[in-house]
Amino acid sequence: MHPVASFPSSCQVFAFLGFLASAMWINAAATELVNILRTLGIIFQLSNTVLGLTLLAWGNSIGDTFSDLTMARQGYPRMAFSACFGGIIFNILVGVGLGCLLQMTSSQLVVKLEPDSLLVWILAGALGLSLVFSFVAVPAQCFQLGKAYGVCLILYYLAFLCVALLTEFRVIRLATA
């Protein structure tokens, strides 16, 4: 007999309700944390872009980082490597996809992205350069990535973060004629 088949149906209902309650608690805690960070952004006059590039992005990645490191140290490096990319891709596709779908069903059929600032172009360019670098470097190393690749990506991220923050604080501007 299958173990789930012998599980009473009332226990299945309580298990589902427990899962639902924990998801709601996690959502409430995350919402409050984002609201606290927004409040700090208002107090210190930081834009949502700066908060998103720093505190929110790092906070969102910490859990994935520790779980991926744990998997790699326990002897599952391929699973950890897949999770590094798969989790982010899934979050982007589902998060952006559902957000755009909800906006399209509620108001209009077209979702417009308005690249009105230099920072948006810097973000897109940095992402494109990073993807091209990885697309060339990973096959060139026969898919055997070492510490040098990781160090290069971290240095690239730090350079991107400096340029993005300098742009946000208007140290770097477009030359107007």
TrEMBL record:
A cellular-component GO term for this protein: membrane
- Position of the signal peptide: none
Every Sodium/calcium exchanger membrane region domain range: 15-165
What is the organism of origin for this protein?
Anas platyrhynchos platyrhynchos (Northern mallard)
User: Transmembrane stretches, by residue range?
Assistant: 12-30, 36-58, 79-98, 118-136, 148-167
GO terms for MF: calcium:sodium antiporter activity
Question: Where does it localize?
Answer: Membrane
* GO BP annotations listed: calcium export from the mitochondrion; intracellular calcium ion homeostasis
Q: What is this protein called?
A: Sodium/calcium exchanger membrane region domain-containing protein
Q: Which Pfam families match?
A: Na_Ca_ex
Q: Does the keyword Transmembrane apply?
A: yes
Q: How does it sit in the membrane?
A: Multi-pass membrane protein
**Top-level division of the source organism's lineage:** Eukaryota
Instruction: Report keywords, A-Z.
Output: Antiport, Calcium, Calcium transport, Ion transport, Membrane, Transmembrane, Transmembrane helix, Transport
Q: Which InterPro entries match?
A: CaCA_antiporter, NaCa_Exmemb, NCX_ion-bd_dom_sf
